Amino acid sequence: MWIIVGSLPDPDFTPCAPQPAPGPSAVVSNDRLVLRDGRSVPVERGTAALVASCVAACAVLRLSPPELALAGDIGSGDGSRALYAMLTERLAEWHPQGMMFHYLFPDVDWHNRVLMAVQALSPRPLLLADAGFMYVAKMSGYAAEYDLFTPDVGELAFLADEKAPHPFYTRGFLLQNDHDVPPLLERIRANGRSPRYLLVKGQADYIVENGVVIATVDEPSEPAMECIGGTGDIVAGLVTAFAMYGLPPGRAALAAARAARLLARRCRPRPDTQAGELIRALPDTLSESLPRILS
Question: Are β-strands 205-209 and 126-129 bridged in parallel, bridged antiparallel, or unpaired?
Answer without folding.
Answer: unpaired
